[in-house]
Specification:
two-stranded antiparallel ribbon; 234 residues; elongated; 4 helices; alpha/beta; Rhopdopsin 7-helix transmembrane proteins; 5-stranded mixed sheet
Length: 234
């Protein structure tokens, strides 16, 4: 230790070895699933389901009356009624699929299987394309009837309108079919197979149809789109 000199405070130095080894076992469970559901009540999903059912009832009744009236009374005697018939038929087919979509929004679960999922998406998509095409053709038909009625009379016959309508249905089906086939009832929801877009997985679903998708190996979601009340983050 030594002795302290006169007029100076004694000083000491102290060193300690404080290093130690800590062994701790952690119990961590990782669930590698495509989906997991949060069972919370979502007013938006319930509201959308009720709205879909109301639209289905009213729309199916209205379009059915139009179809019956044309077949019984007019018998598609003009090109205009032919296009109106096809427009009502396309809308009616879309109404048939609405109860299935309403059920998924209400329960946050698709219970009708993979084939029904694809069929409903085909009905939905073919309605969108056929309706737009029919309205376009009807506009052209009205133009020909008003601007050059004699010149275009041969193109405005019921037979010609039926041929054009058949082509519209075929073109709409071929357009929507590849996309609709990529829909599947994966993880209990009828949604598009996001694997065709890039590598990743859907990691969260909540009632009301919210779906979050995250690319593998990243921590952020990129983009979003909405399909029948279902928001998909990409």
């Amino acid at each position: 230790w030594g002795s302290a000199q006169e007029g100076h405070e004694p000083s000491w130095s102290l060193s300690m070895d404080t290093s130690f080894q800590l062994d701790t076992d952690y119990n961590h469970t990782y669930v590698d699933e495509h989906f997991y559901y949060v069972d919370n009540v979502d007013g938006f999903g319930i509201t959308m389901a009720i709205l879909y059912l109301v639209v289905c009832i009213v729309g199916l009744a209205g379009n059915s009356l139009v179809i019956v009236a044309i077949l019984k009374l007019d018998k598609m005697s003009s090109s205009t009624t032919v296009y109106i018939f096809n427009l009502a038929l396309a809308d009616g087919l879309f109404m048939v699929g609405l109860p299935f979509i309403a059920s998924q929004n209400f329960q946050n679960h698709w219970m009708f299987g993979d084939i029904a999922c694809k069929a409903v998406m085909v009905l939905d998509g073919i309605n969108q394309f056929t309706s737009v095409f029919c309205l376009t053709v009807m506009s052209i038909d009205r133009y020909m009837a008003l601007a050059e009625p004699l010149r275009f009379a041969r193109f405005r016959t019921p037979r010609c309108a039926k041929i054009v309508s058949a082509f519209l249905w075929l073109f709409s089906l071929l357009t929507i079919l590849p996309m609709a086939l990529h829909f599947s009832a994966v993880g209990g929801l009828c949604i598009p197979d996001l694997g065709i877009l890039s590598t990743g997985k859907i990691h969260r679903c909540v009632r009301g149809g919210q779906v979050q998708w995250q690319p593998t190996g990243t921590e952020q979601s990129h983009g979003s789109y909405r399909y029948h009340g279902k928001t998909v983050f990409m």
